[in-house]
Design goal:
Layout: H1 3-13, H2 27-48, H3 66-80
Length: 92
């Protein structure tokens, strides 16, 4: 290698690129996407408040028995503490 080649390689190694995608959004598509996102967030909020997923969907709320609560707690514990989980055993 010549000295000039080594200098060139050193200069090239110092170049930093910041790549950006050139994206032009159609305003109509952007509005449609944002409306869909708002609808999904409203459904998620309604579900989180206990109103169900759809406006037309009726949800029946019933209390969990102590046995079901314990089963749920066991599943959560098994999920969190994977060292206790036998991977050959189904997660049910």
């Amino acid at each position: 290698e010549t000295i000039s080649t080594c200098r060139f390689a050193q200069r090239v190694a110092q170049i930093k690129n910041n790549a950006k995608v050139n994206e032009e959004l159609d305003p109509a598509l952007l509005i449609q996407r944002l409306k869909r996102e708002v609808l999904e967030l409203k459904q998620e909020l309604r579900f989180a408040k206990g109103g169900g997923g759809d406006e037309n969907e009726s949800v029946i709320h019933e209390e969990l028995t102590d046995e079901l609560k314990q089963h749920c707690q066991d599943l959560v514990d098994r999920y969190v503490d994977r060292s206790r989980v036998d991977l050959k055993q189904p997660f049910v």
